[in-house]
């Protein structure tokens, strides 16, 4: 799969605007400021294809990127407190609508900040994916910010913090040094190949 062929495709702010999917889709989910845009840019070898912001709650649409016959769906970040109730409602309708729709959704990368225990919203999202039987991988972001000892402690804690943790594939990732990026690319390539067969 040629990750360098990526381009921004389109974005939607309301679920009813999203057309039916005719290609395999891979979604990226996580709380505001967990590093979704940084991850997408890293695996696509781009500086700013996905817009990165230090302001949480910046991505308020589902942004689609076209990558060699596959769509990447960058879902808006959840859990940002300073967003109005009506905005939260719109977000929920958009994301739940997308995830519950009959789409060619092959995989979700669920991002969780490695430095901290998963938030209540993270756990709700993981349970939603489990209940819906949507295949997913947990990506533990900002791994470079932890020492070896801190990582070991967080790994152990996650076994109790995440439901069914022992059955979930987890990848430690850093947008700074690229750790985990190749493994993510390999998973995406495998998914794309399976679809093509």
Briefly characterize the structure.
Residues 53-58 have low confidence and may be disordered. The chain has helices spanning 36-43, 85-100, 120-131, 148-161, 181-196; strands spanning 7-12, 25-30, 62-67, 70-74, 105-113, 136-141, 170-172. It is 34% helix and 21% strand.
At the fourth level of CATH, the homologous superfamily is: P-loop containing nucleotide triphosphate hydrolases
According to DSSP, the number of beta strands is 7
Helix count? 5
Q: Rough shape?
A: globular
Strand content: 15-25%
Low-pLDDT runs of 5+ residues are 53-58
| Estimated structural class | alpha/beta
Helix-residue proportion: 25-40%
- The gyration radius over C-alpha positions equals 16 Å
Please describe the biggest sheet, giving its number of strands, its sense, and whether it closes into a barrel: 7 strands, mixed
N- to C-terminal separation?
14 Å
CATH architecture: 3-Layer(aba) Sandwich
Mean pLDDT: 88
The main sheet orders its strands as: 1-3-4-2-5-6-7
Question: Tell me, what is the CATH class?
Answer: Alpha Beta
Oligomer state equals single chain
Tally of distinct domains = 1
- Under CATH, the topology is which? Rossmann fold
Order of helices and strands: EEHEEHEHEHEH
